[in-house]
Amino acid sequence: MNLKQTSERIRSLHQQYIASLKKEKRVIRLFQIVIFIAFFILWEAASRFHWVDPLLFSSPSAIWNLFVEKLGDHSLLTHTFVTLFETILGFIIGTVAGALLGALLWWFPRLSKTLDPYLVVFNAMPKVALGPILIVALGPGFTSIIAMGVIISVIITTIVVYSSFQEVDANYLKVLQTFGATRCQCFKEAVLPSSFPTIISTLKVNVGLSWVGVITGEFLVSKQGLGYLIIYGFQVFNFTLVLMSLLVIALLSTVMYQVVTFIEKKLIKHR
Amino acid sequence: MSFLVVDRVSHTYFTEKTAVTALENISLTVEKGEIVSFLGPSGCGKTTLLSIIAALIEPTEGAVFIEGKELDRFRPTAGYMLQQDYLFPWKTIEENILLGLKIMGRLTEETKRRALDLLAYIGLKGVESHYPSQLSGGMRQRAALVRTLATDPKMLLLDEPFSALDQQTKLKLEELVWKTLKEYGKTAVLVTHDIGEAIAMSDRIFLFSAKPGRIMHTFMVPDELRRLSPFAARQHPSFSALFQSIWKELDELETNQ
């Protein structure tokens, strides 16, 4: 009887604990929503009552109207699609090429020692400065924009992936070597899977980097895409267009980041 | 000819600034089915010698023969068990214990069934689809033993395999490993710094001195202890006599340095 009472009590305490956790979550979510709404209301008000210059800072309602209008004539969808395509392609190529280069460096230690100073220089250099050269070399089209997205992420990916390959616990390799494993088997069974978390976390960094590369590329090429809309809006002093493009980019990059987080959760279960 | 022959092996580790001799002129033989221990203070090169026998490193001088044949890095004849289990955390227990067979290209229905039988024999039935993180330390070390035995190696090299476990688990595992080795008639080399463990587990004990590693003394474990399992051996009156004489020898080694 007494035991039963104790377990009843523990169960009700546990439920109280769960309820308090849920409550805390709800409070946080509420604050987040309040900040979101307050920000836009304040922005709208500031613009309406000329606390700030509406020509420079536009207003949420103006942005929304422009958004609906541009959606209607399909121009926004085209620009968004172009940018998204370039970013995803730049992201994938940059990550895959970086990982492959990292593997190559791991495979040939002499190569990595030789290339080390060049990697350092190339990593330290602002890749955006290569933009004009890329456009001359590859033509003012989407090839140079994608190249921009790739070049900005590939070296840092190479460096991070290579160093995570090197940090593999030597004892895992020892286990494999006692079975007579070749270098290829060591890579496949221990080096690659144990570096998975690092590779995934470079994916997250690369999402941001490829957006930077692609938008900069579109600034320079100025043909189409959200980066082009921003630079165009700036030139004709239409800051509603600039801010609208910015909001679309913010939304899309967040979605892309969430997708990578989802993939991360799927891939890394048992660590 | 003996099963394992270590012939005048010396090994020196080189770095830019130093040349440290870990082993100096080691010669020994181990017979088939025998369990021997390498006992000594840390830094006496016992793990180095084990790595040489496992063909993981090549000795600076000398050679090692198993059944009269020189070692081949890509055709290992010895199974190696490390201080910690080093089960691959991203693989299930089943994938882990089949790893050796897979690497050696010997994974068939038959070898797989044998490995799973071994897992059941060692008391781990039903954890095949678990991940190592779901198992306790003792269970993981047992799974690592199955991984080592699954390839049916001619001999077993145990590098302080019980030192990371708590006392109770350690005693139980000593018992299990000893029984498994005897059951399958395996030759084994155990590296340890635990005198009791060396006496309880082995037939012969090589006592090493440190810096550089040399064999100072070979102790024969008396017949009455060899026949007993580790736990029973620890209770036998001859146990403490041998313990005392090894202790004295080790103590003298230390004071002489």
UniProtKB/TrEMBL annotation, chain A:
Residues 76-260 form the ABC transmembrane type-1 domain. Its main location: membrane. The keyword Membrane applies. It is a multi-pass membrane protein. The keyword Metal-binding does not apply. CDD domains: TM_PBP2 (cd06261). Belongs to the binding-protein-dependent transport system permease family. This is ABC transmembrane type-1 domain-containing protein. The lineage of its organism: Bacteria, Bacillati, Bacillota, Bacilli, Bacillales.
TrEMBL record, chain B:
Pfam families: ABC_tran. It comes from Saccharococcus caldoxylosilyticus. Keywords: ATP-binding, Nucleotide-binding, Transport. The keyword Cell wall biogenesis/degradation does not apply. The lineage of its organism: Bacteria, Bacillati, Bacillota, Bacilli, Bacillales. PANTHER family: ABC TRANSPORTER ATP-BINDING PROTEIN, TAURINE IMPORT ATP-BINDING PROTEIN-RELATED. InterPro entries: AAA+_ATPase (IPR003593), ABC_transporter-like_ATP-bd (IPR003439), ABC_transporter-like_CS (IPR017871), ABC_transporter_ATP-bind (IPR050166), P-loop_NTPase (IPR027417). This is ABC transporter domain-containing protein. Residues 7-235 form the ABC transporter domain. One of its GO terms (molecular function) is ATP hydrolysis activity.
